[in-house]
Amino acid sequence: MNQQENYPEIREAVAKLCTRFPGEYWRSLDREHAYPTEFVQALTESGYLSVMIPEEYGGVGLPLGAACAVLEEIQRAGCNGGACHAQMYIMGTVLRHGSDAQKQKYLPAIAAGELRLQAFAVTEPGSGTDTTRIRTRAVRDGDHYVVNGQKVFISRTEHSDLMVLLVRTTPREEGQKRTDGMSVLLVDMREALDNGMTITPIRTMMNHATTELFFDNLRVPVENRIGEEGKGFRYIMDGMNAERILIAAECIGDARYFVEKASSYAIDRVVFGRPIGQNQGVQFPIARAYIQSEAAACMVREATALFEAGQACGSEANMAKMLASEVAWQAGDTCIQTHGGYGFAEEYDIERKFRETRLYQVAPISTNLILSHVATHELGLPKSF
Ligand SMILES: Cc1cc2nc3c(=O)[nH]c(=O)nc-3n(C[C@H](O)[C@H](O)[C@H](O)COP(=O)(O)OP(=O)(O)OC[C@H]3O[C@@H](n4cnc5c(N)ncnc54)[C@H](O)[C@@H]3O)c2cc1C
After folding, report:
1. Does ligand 1 lie within 6 Å of residue 129's CB atom?
2. Could you tell me the distance, in angstroms and rounded to a whole number, from the CA of residue 7 to the centre of ligand 1?
3. Residue 265: which H helix or E strand, with range?
4. What are the distances in angstroms from CA 62 to CA 2, 7, 49, 65, 105?
């Protein structure tokens, strides 16, 4: 299909791995809202989850584009990288802002698959998108922080050994800037569970292992703080471009899954004595979805190239995520329409993928906030908040 696809060997190997996890595997998990442990295990053992961890810490040390290729192929094959994609971008917080001791302690174990770093806790019920209003508080007590508060929609917490947690170490009112006074803690979930932290699963319209967290005097060693106290917001923001670009790559994979599935069905399905795809009313929406997904893929490549060159890419990463998430949804809609009634049948997997890809217009950042970023940062329009 696309001649510009990079990392062909990685793509081919990931696609091959994914054939071991066909639609029936994902369908049965979806029914039970169960975690794809075997899939994540296979991906971990293959080394594809740690492609971005530098070689000195036991990873492969490839740039962001390689991780994008891995996630895109997972989605394109009909699998769901949402179960484990976070490790790729959370790891960057430890790598960029962790101490040498923290990097030595955690990164090799993550690369070896001995430790899972899959959970990233920012969102709270009372703050929503306005992260500076988080209220989860960490108060210093000797060589520990005592954490109290609540997080919502925190994914994979039941399937992760470590969690990156954003807390307030200074109340918002006491900081010079509203972004001051937040800190990042690395929580050992195995120690924390039922020892100051409780996890309550949230059932969502797709199988995403998301949860609500409650902290009641959770003790976290001060040595588990990443970077300086009070600078946590900047550390989290630093990781966001990678997160947006990786999610955008997943959405491109979804869009390609839908376009390929719709095309092949439109060729095979015969109604009125001819393939339905011979009707332009059927073929044009598929062609449109293809064109839009290729355009979005260009934006993802542009954002990736800037990121890899160490250049500012906040707007490009956001634009890539918005375009890719929207085209994935539109391609899914076209795929359902092309399949007629069969698009709604579970065994075709389309309705499952359609539900799964919808998330990315809301998380990790919603479309309105992207529009607002571009309006103010690129176009100079006044900020509304
Ligand atoms: C399945 C799932 C998994 C998730 N996983 C994680 C996770 O692992 N870790 C984590 O920290 N979070 C996670 N989230 C949370 C997700 O990032 C948030 O839901 C998202 O950022 C939006 O926040 P909110 O739900 O509080 O919406 P709100 O902030 O309440 O916003 C609601 C709507 O209003 C719009 N809106 C708000 N303010 C404005 C404005 N000023 N101008 C225009 N529009 C506005 C938003 O765009 C949105 O559409 C997850 C969410 C889901 C659903």
Report:
1. yes
2. 33
3. helix 232-268
4. 22, 10, 11, 8, 21
**Is residue 372 in contact with ligand 1, taking CB distance under 6 Å?**
yes
Distance CA 90, CA 243 (A): 8
For the Cβ of 208 lying below 6 angstroms from any atom of ligand 1, the answer is yes
Q: How far is the CA of 228 from the centre of ligand 1 (A)?
A: 27
Of 237, 362, 384, best ligand 1 pocket probe by most atoms within 8 Å of the beta carbon: 362
Nearest protein CA to atom 51 of ligand 1, as residue? 153
pTM, entire model: 0.97
H or E element that contains 90:
helix 86-97
Q: Closest Cα to atom 52, ligand 1: which residue?
A: 153
pLDDT tens over the chain, length 385 residues:
555 689 999 999 999 999 999 999 999 999 999 999 999 999 999 999 999 999 999 999 999 999 999 999 999 999 999 999 999 999 999 999 999 999 999 999 999 999 999 999 999 999 999 999 999 999 999 999 999 999 999 999 999 999 999 999 999 999 889 999 999 999 999 999 999 999 999 999 999 999 999 999 999 999 999 999 999 999 999 999 999 999 999 999 999 999 999 999 999 999 999 999 999 999 999 999 999 999 999 999 999 999 999 999 999 999 999 999 999 999 999 999 999 999 999 999 999 999 999 999 999 999 999 999 999 999 999 999 9
Structure tokens given for 275: 């393939």
Q: Which atom of ligand 1 is found nearest the CA of 151? A: 11
CA-CA distance, 177 to 288, in Å (whole number)?
A: 46
